Amino acid sequence: MDIQKLQSRNAAMDIIRIVAAFTVLSVHFFLHNGFYSQTVEGAPMYIMVLMRTLFSVCVPLFMILTGYLMSHKTLSRKYYSGISKTLIIFVLATLACMIFKAIHDNESFTLKSFILGTLDFTGANYSWYIEMYIGLFLLIPFLNLAYNKLKNKRQKQVLVLTLVFLTIIPTVFNIFNFDNPAWWSDPKTSDTFAKLIPSWWMGIYPITYYFTGCYIREYGIKLKTSSTLVLFLLAILIFGTFNYYRSYGTTFKSGSYVFWYGIEPYVLSVLLFVLLSRIKTDNMNEKVKFVLWKVSDLALGIYLISYIFDMLVYPVLNAKINPMTDRLPFYFVAVPIVFVCSMLASAIMNIAAKYIQILFKKLVGFIKAQRQRADKYKWQDYLFIALMAGGLIFAFWKCVFGFGGNDEAFYLTVPQRFNMGDALIKDEWHLSQMSGFLLMPFVWLFTTVTGSTEGIILAARVLYILFHATVSVIIYLRIRKYGYVSVFASVLYFIYTPYDIMAMSYNTMGLDFVTLSGVIMGTASYKKKLPLIVSGVAFAAAVLCCPYLAVAYILYGICVLIHTFIKNRDTKFILKSELFAGKTFLFFSIGIFALAAVFLIFALTRVSIKEIIDYLPYLMTDPEHPQIALGTRFSMYFNSIYNCHSHFKIALFSYLAMIIIMIIDRKRKYHRSLYLIVTTAIVIFCYVLLLPQLTYSTYNAIMFPLIFIGITSYILCENKPKPLFASLFVLGIIYSFAICFSSNQYFYVISMVITASNIASYVFLAQLLREMKTSQDNIEYAVWVKKGSFLFVAFMIFLQGAFQITVKAEHCFWESGNTSNLTAQIQNGPAKGIYTNVNNCNTYEQIYSDLQYYKSKPKDKILFLTAKTWCYLAAEFPYGTLSAWISGENPSSVERLKTYYSVNPEEIPKYIYIPKDSQWDFTNIYNDAYSYGYSFEENEISYKLEKIN
Hints:
It is built from 37 helices and 6 strands.
């Protein structure tokens, strides 16, 4: 027990806070017991109206007490830290209430809903007071300046009376109807009232109560206690009777005079506050004072958490006791029960809040101490390891959810058919086929070890997680020197998965290889050969995933040529960097040609150069990837960004205007904080625009806004990380053009590959923040603005992480709804172990069972006329198709297949399988198949065709 602190406390204020909390719960008694839907008539309702009138002092008592206790607070850093406990209690109460509603009311509870429920003050149902209090708390130092600058008691009385006139008095005069004389005898006939005095300022009533508390503390109220008590009791009687009169014959009328800004709560709360503040506590037993102190300290938590116990107590009361008026005696049971339960819950929250504050202070002190140590990366590394461990757990949890059977299985069909002996370009006509070369070892190893393809899709997901994690770790190790920002850059990179398809695809592998190549080149010591060679190999692998990316190598060669002419000149031009030296280019090229040589050996042992030239035009006939003029492609690139959201142009034009101002600002170094604040605000605005659609249509888009931070930070940096800018940031931009030219996804795929540039963006940001810490801006309030910019950056990174995690947790590319709907686990075949919805699972299992028909058939080429590419993995027969991906179930796909068989007659399939849920014109299919000599078999699942001559 802190005796000194206890003796200095005014126990009367603790009593006021406890009474305020109890009256809040008392008002909620009427909110939840049916009072507001009961006709006001009879003695029981008169008593209840009197009680409801009395309990309206609840919130006003809190606000007056705030003014009383905080009237001497001044503007300081320590002052602002004073709200931390309030905010922690609020967040804990929100968490508790939302968990309760998820269990009790089956409401959705996710990280996203928790964040939004906290920010919009709906998670804890009674948290509107916190929303008001935050604003009042921020104003208090300035309100105190205004109040304390007044010279005498008279001026302060005028201040309080002015605010009373603006906020309270309108509820005295603007509540009557002068148009209808009959209204006065029966007020329930109309709710239309005449306005006699201005009421526009009523919304600032918390300030009125605050200044009232300030005034009472300084001057008190010059009334005897006995007179004050009589006035208080008379006020209850008069106001209660007035409310009964206004509501008689109908339900309770919650007129403006009853609300917190009403004359009734104001008069009653002021009188009750004065009465309670006069309680003599000097000679009170110390144990009693201690109990009052501790219960008072729980008041806020009691207020916020009481919703849970209201929802448990009052439904039982209402079900057991009828009519409503018979519930009145149970006030003396229900409210104390809710109060005690809420007090216990609040005590738990206060203990948690205490340790959170202690932990935070220790963490801050610990970080400061570590920054002074020689091994300053030690704890940064620990943080990275902890976050990556959490990310891996999250990824392994998520990887079992969602199955579509089309894209993901297709990525494995290409290496499968290559392992069966099929050739590039000649046998496989899909444009993405070269990436399949990279997966051949995995598919071969898996099928060799297991003897089948059962579970191969889930295994490929695990492989992706391990590969993606490895790349993320390498990224961190390469940019580690840039401090804690490098931790978040690497971890958030790991959390993100293109399209949220956790598979080894040309998208996921392409992004990882581009990022890996760029980050190694941008951070390499150019005297060391191995990193350059590894970077080259990674780049070559990325080109296999997106052949158009080869243009980056050509541009690199041109830059190397320019470097030879300017390397001896006195210039800061980026091309003077050793990144563009001939030796660097040579070893980078060695890595490229090493993988290229292996690839060409594989390709040319199965298909000749002449055949490649002959067959290549057929690949360009893919209806999903029509040939479009180069100029049109460029136009579509920029249009897709501009039109990604109807309001995205606001962000673009705003950022463009800021960039122009920043570039022409010769003193931009001294205005860095302002530019950083504006940029982060634009990024956050983009998050707000894109967030509603992220879980169903634009998942990749969450990665695009950070490009703005990269550009701003790089321009503002004094010591620019030029090699990383060229090797990663620019490479990511080039990649976005290249993949846009080879894809039909446009902004969706552009925002995906910008993720590579974002790693560089984080590095530029880290460099800028480091420079800002060591030199001051030359603007008014420079220190505060700089700290504000740091807070904006921290909030932006927090939102980026929160949205990435939340959306990934909820989003499944092929499934509607979230992971909670994916309860059926696939038991057989290549998708074994994956959870999907019941209908999807049943369809899969039916078709897989139907495919067992081929187990008794001799292995021969098979064609599956379906978008379900997993069927090829399940059958494990040689491919008799131009690709497992046939570009839609439509006549053009049939014609393309006929073309394929005309030039590859040896690929004509022995078997054709058509699920009945397909969209084909079965009559035409049957006629064509019959003419080519196929027999026909049908069951409730499919059509099976077999070539007999």
